Amino acid sequence: MKIKNIESIVKNKNCTGCGVCQLMCQTGAISFEEDCEGFKSPRIAASKCIGCGVCLRKCPSEVPVKRHSVKLGEFYIVQSKEHWKVKKSASGGVFYTIAKYFINELQGVVFGVAFDKDNIAKHIYTERLAELPKMQNSKYVQSDLGNSFKMVKKFLKDGRYVLFSGTPCQVAGLYAYLRKSEERLFTADIICHGVSSPRLLQKQIEEYSHLRKGKIQGIFFRHKHFLFPSESLFYMVMKVKYGLPIVRNPNDTPYFNIFLKGLGFRESCYNCQYANENRVGDFTMGDCDSHRLYPQFHPNESNSSLMLNSVKAKEMWNKKLHYLFDSQPLDIAKEIEYNKQLHSPSARPDIRDKIYCELQELPWGEFAKKYARQPTTVMKARSYLALVMPFFIIKVWSKRNEQKNI
Q1: How far lies 163's CA from each of 16, 160, 320, 343, in Å?
Q2: Distance, CA of 341 to CA of 232 (rounded, Å)
Q3: Measuring CA to CA, how many Å separate 345 from each of 25, 91, 255, 339?
Q4: Phi and psi (nearest 5°) for 318?
Q5: The pTM is what?
Q6: CA–CA separation, 119 and 250 (whole Å)
Q7: Other C-beta atoms within 10 Å of 352: how many?
Q8: Residues 274, 89: contact at Cβ < 8 Å?
Q9: What are phi and psi of 16, to 5 degrees?
Q10: Starting at the edge strand that comes first in sequence, how are the strands of the sheet with 74-80 ordered?
């Protein structure tokens, strides 16, 4: 009789790649390797597996972790009072501001995602404010958790406060690994639409590196004007060592276009158990999609929604954190209505069946033509101007481009 193990989760397309099964395996039978699409998934060494079933019993996809009921939470639209730091954030600077509090006031440790020197998104930790900007701005790709869970456990054992931010499935993985609640651990899950393959992003980066004949030294998916109050615009900006950065409208970039249209998410994202109003983290952070309902609250700027899900998150907010923000109570029912990831996962498109096969089989030029618009010189010029022009002019262009693509 064949023993059921963690590979059944992979076959059922429910594996989120959190890596808990590998960490909990007592015999080292489980390794994490890239699958044919570039996502990391568990592999079983049959010679080492003793059939204990620990991997399944600890898998958050098999045994869901506790959620916080939306009925017991507190909800706010927020904007950090440190406006100059908000410029580096995708929305209202909520992560940076809370992370700064943990480091300065609690002498804590903050975990978040940053691109390394090879442009690979990895979870890192820091005890220094100077490192926080690396974790700001959106990283639209699945991050490598590395040994983050082990390090969280170590810091907690040492009596440190820890703030861990990540996708809801990563937060769930952390709880599954720790196996018990920790008073000094605070988690922040982001409102996640899904994650695309790191391999696809690396392929995109390689092509732009060839274009400029130099290594890409920084990647950004969101942009705010450096002088004016502005909303966060979706532009892919890649910095190079010499010369102007590469700037592209999402429609002109295969990776970004595929991501924003939800064409190439990890399979588990399309049946995500966390895409609802009942959250796994102490905090939930994201763009406030219903911000138009609050016209007097930082108009013409991107604002954050902040969900306080646990008792300790609400206590920290009421005692300390609320002083660090401009805030207003958020109608969570309206936010759930406007933000679909708070009520249902992204729909799986039929093209998902072949997109990664074509990535392997087609030359990049053909793949790019199929999954992105081919920008003209004028389109490229407009993208560059987006870095320096006031947001309202760019919005006019963006709306015109959207209408052309309907």
Answers
A1: 21, 10, 15, 26
A2: 19
A3: 30, 22, 20, 11
A4: -70, -30
A5: 0.91
A6: 19
A7: 16
A8: no
A9: -95, -10
A10: 121-126, 109-115, 162-166, 185-190, 283-287, 304-308, 74-80, 325-329
Instruction: Express each pLDDT in 179-221 by its tens digit.
Output: 888 899 999 999 999 999 999 999 999 888 887 767 888 888 8
For residues 192 and 281, is the Cβ–Cβ distance under 8 A?
A: no
Among 176, 181, 186, 165, which residue's Cα sits nearest to residue 65?
Answer: 176
The amino acid that residue 75 corresponds to is F
Is 91 or 403 the better-scoring residue by pLDDT? Answer: 91
Q: Is the pLDDT of residue 305 over 50?
A: yes
Exposed/middle/buried for residue 397 (C-beta within 10 Å: 0-12, 13-18, 19+): middle
Whether the Cβ atoms of residue 152 and residue 162 lie closer than 8 Å to each other: yes
Angstrom distances, CA of residue 54 to CA of 10, 50, 60, 98: 16, 10, 12, 35
72: which DSSP letter? G
Report, as an integer, the average pLDDT of 116-129.
94
Q: How far apart are CA 268 and CA 238, in angstroms?
A: 29
CB 332 within 8 A of CB 98: no
Dist. CA 334–CA 45, nearest whole Å: 49
Distances (CA, A) of 233 to 28, 36, 148, 266, 313: 45, 32, 31, 25, 30
H or E segment and range at residue 224: none
The position carrying tokens 């991997």 is 55
Amino acid at 250: P
Q: Give which of 232, 203, 237 is closest to 219, Cα–Cα.
A: 237
Domains of the chain: 7-58 (3.30.70.20), 70-195+269-342 (3.40.640), 198-264+364-405 (no CATH)
Q: Per the structure block, which two tokens stand in for 356?
A: 């990664």
Look at residues 161, 333, 341, 209 and name the one whose alpha carbon lies nearest to residue 265: 341
How many residues appear in the chain?
406
Pairing label, strands 74-80, 304-308: antiparallel
Report angle CA 200, 225, 78 to the nearest 5 degrees: 90
Environment class of 162 (CB within 10 Å of its CB; exposed 0-12, middle 13-18, buried 19+): buried
Place of tokens 């009421």: 318
